[in-house]
Amino acid sequence: MSPVPRYPRSVPFSLFTREPRAQRLAAGPANFLRDIQLPLDNAHSSLPSLYSLSRPFSQSKMGSLPVGRLHKGNINQNILAARYAVRGELAVKAEEYRVKLEQGKEPLPFDKVIFANIGNPQQLDQKPITFFRQVLSLMEHPPLLEKEEALKSVFGYKQDAIDRAKLLLKDVQSVGAYSQSHGSPLVRRSVAKFLEKRDGFPADPAHIYLSAGASSGVNTLLNILCAGQDNGVLVPIPQYPLYTATLAVLNARCVPYYLDEASNWSTDVKAIHMSVAQAKAQGTDVRAIVVINPGNPTGACLGPDAVKQVIDLAVDENLVIIADEVYQTNIFKGEFTSFKKRLRQLQQEAPGKYDHVELASLHSVSKGMVGECGHRGGYFELVGFHADVEEQIYKFISVMLCPPVIGQCLVELMVNPPQPGEPSYETYQQEYNAIASGLHQRALALYEAFKRMEGVECQEPQGAMYLFPTITLPQKAIEAAQAQNRHADEFYALRLLDATGVCIVPGSGFGQKPGTYHFRTTFLAPGTDWVNRIVEFHRKFMDEFK
Amino acid sequence: MSPVPRYPRSVPFSLFTREPRAQRLAAGPANFLRDIQLPLDNAHSSLPSLYSLSRPFSQSKMGSLPVGRLHKGNINQNILAARYAVRGELAVKAEEYRVKLEQGKEPLPFDKVIFANIGNPQQLDQKPITFFRQVLSLMEHPPLLEKEEALKSVFGYKQDAIDRAKLLLKDVQSVGAYSQSHGSPLVRRSVAKFLEKRDGFPADPAHIYLSAGASSGVNTLLNILCAGQDNGVLVPIPQYPLYTATLAVLNARCVPYYLDEASNWSTDVKAIHMSVAQAKAQGTDVRAIVVINPGNPTGACLGPDAVKQVIDLAVDENLVIIADEVYQTNIFKGEFTSFKKRLRQLQQEAPGKYDHVELASLHSVSKGMVGECGHRGGYFELVGFHADVEEQIYKFISVMLCPPVIGQCLVELMVNPPQPGEPSYETYQQEYNAIASGLHQRALALYEAFKRMEGVECQEPQGAMYLFPTITLPQKAIEAAQAQNRHADEFYALRLLDATGVCIVPGSGFGQKPGTYHFRTTFLAPGTDWVNRIVEFHRKFMDEFK
């Protein structure tokens, strides 16, 4: 019937799991990279995969029947090699627990799942900012604008919300229409004005590209940058796994550089130079450096000197800078220094030296006090890119047509919020400040709890939405984890989830120095009960494996 | 300063334009594929690029300075090789004209630009469906739900719109929160119910993946499928260029099969077998077949026999079927036959034979009577895929976190609209029918106009949003086009745009048999003035080049 021999289901999977390329990718190009702890693929282990149990795949494939055209051994092996722990096994198991609690059939040792694995503020407690959502509701249903008085008197809309919706509607026509590939002209102009005000230097809407969240922007940039197997991109370790996952899909090399935990997870330029040298020695064409500022998962904020050091490094090593600045308003200590501003300053101070720096900086509506992840809004600005390259970027994003238009409108609202004296200003400011101080309080409460925990050390919260403590695990726990073919921090996180319903991400999901263990937790969840649950679990865990 | 020699701007571009791999990709694996007319890259020609003129790239790169790290010669050459005519040079020029008219500075020979190049209904005349947008406005600003009476009495919301918003909000919590990677459980359940009702066979929410429009779904599927340079996917010619562009980016092979214009652009299975044989002979591992039904750009609808033939072919040739069914409700003649339904019927009729068929079928909120392109909502259903493969698909989409949540809600509304007896039903039905009959009337008016035009032949409208007439161009016009390094139909389309402001896409943007010329136009624009403009232009053009 079929001219191509089908692959029989009964052949053991181990035949497929020897993936030299996949392993090479996970390990990276240089020997020292093999040491970075990245998540193990438990689907390959002898354990039943919790992951696949959670998703009832078709019965017809589950027996001893031969399988169809596609199987693990012949699909895109780059995807197989990619790892993305933020939504991996732990997150899937947490969702299973949530469903079980909802159904109420099976008793669990907790009454609520706390998703501390992902920066998703509105899944937890955070309310959207009223002005933003009022405008969006009018964008979705413009006939509301025909009765302005009722909107105001009955529903509390202010005139500036109404005016903004009219302005945006004039530009996009309908949020149901495709916009230009790089986004609505009005929104891009507003982003440029925002950048000019933030940095004190001109910004050009022609170089601003709206995107479906910052993730989509990163995907675009890495797609353009990575032209082959020997191309590499410097990625901080620990890092947000979007970068390593996307590089794996592109079959490009992740060139890791360790952040310095001892100095508050700051960027160590000497270490980066060494990483570049080692990668080059192995034939890697290192093309770009990713900097996440404020850091994810570390929360570290780079000051003007640190930013200058990275720019100098980019000049010396001829690197494109990808500045992931999505947490630019999530800062508790110090203030945000944008790469764009610092670059423009340096270009003024040392004419000529910095002329050819290529910088892509990203921002998003998902984080900050906006917290509108589900709307998938974001942008990146390109500085110093060649026109030909921008042309190819434009073409690349055109194939997906345009970012969600309502998300584009939200970008406009984020960068151009109500100003003092405008009708919605006071409420906006109150809501904004309440979110900011709530986040800070929760961060501090969690930090205090970690300080009380045996074997846990944590840097003082600086920014972003996360804490990333070190955890010293007993040898017995490490051995128990090894027996399950797991990293010890992953073992810890699974036990925590099973016992308390609190879902965190083990440090191995972001990368960490060998022999060290960490975990990342958001501080978005309200209340202190879940923090106490962690403290209690930790005490019992340490007792058990002492 | 920089250890890597920088590439001087003064080196002629021609050094970069010899792209053997890019040319191979554009040409496809088999000799006969070289004959397919795909768009030329005018950026490489000696003409000034209209495209780049339209986008004022940074001055600093425009002089004789050396360029930075990235240039056309070292970025991802797969992207360079990709072509996407729907938003190419013509669309960019049309946007320039639109801006010029808006600014009113420069007189043009027309007073309005008609974007007939892209199926973007709400950019033109189509109003969104009230029920959908009422629900979405409530999703965006849930405090509106606190005053139901005013919503109803002042703003005309019906109880079912209010109830639906509450139901969806309960599921997604907030449209500002990330959903599960493959979308909200409620929305996926509704899609499954819709499919069961449409096809008369069970559907499982676990195999339904919401996406940011169908384009994003296609991108996911091709990413999974294409594992290397020798992998190929059968794509109809003419086709929607998303497919060829994505395959080019993935460095996979497009294995084209010609649709049969003489029989209303139907699928010719013998021709497909031949394409597969030729591709195999050249070492291509042909993995899947793309079918666009109803067709884009052709509008052709496949009946049950034609669908069965494709499924049989998939069995014989061991191919995954990608059924792009986004125009499933845009049908004027006959009725839609879904691949899923036909497959399930065949599985019942001939037990065993069709058990291992793998089918991915896609749908979207962008087309049909919904027309909500800007919301980027869609889904795909997988049938018969191996659990391991679905696991990798889930991981792949997780890296981008989730599709826009408000777009997911719109998917729910599309598949679960108001039913007879429900308060919003009557208005919904009226609006839906008015859009459907308006589209049909416009299609017929355009068809009649084409019949009157010398050298133009057009199939009777069957479905989708497009007509795709053949045009016989005078030899002198073909020569004039060659002198500009353009395809003749592209030359024609540019002249049409310059003279009338009507933007269409030349057939070379979709692929066509050598020596034939076509163009695709939507029939979305209201009125007949723009149609008359085309008729008049055509007469003058034919006179000029006679």
Description:
The structure is a homodimer of 546-residue chains. By secondary structure, chain A is α/β, with parallel strands linked by helices. Among the domains of chain A are: 14-81, no CATH class; 210-399, 3-Layer(aba) Sandwich (Aspartate Aminotransferase, domain 2), CATH 3.40.640.10. Chain A contains 20 helices and 14 strands. The first copy, chain A, has helices at residues 14-17, 20-27, 50-53, 77-81, 89-103, 130-140, 148-155, 159-172, 185-199, 213-225, 242-249, 269-281, 304-317, 339-349, 387-398, 405-415, 425-452, 475-483, 488-500, 529-544, and strands at residues 114-115, 208-211, 231-237, 253-258, 285-292, 320-324, 359-364, 378-383, 456-457, 466-467, 470-471, 502-503, 505-506, 519-522. A 7-stranded mixed β-sheet of chain A has the order 2-8-7-6-5-3-4, with helices on both faces. A 3-stranded antiparallel β-sheet of chain A has the order 10-14-13. In chain A, strands 1-12 form a two-stranded parallel sheet. The longest helix of chain A has 28 residues, at 425-452. Chain A is globular and about 65 Å long. The interface between A and B is large, with 127 and 127 residues. Chains A, B: It holds the Pfam family Aminotran_1_2. Chains A, B: It comes from Uncinocarpus reesii (strain UAMH 1704).
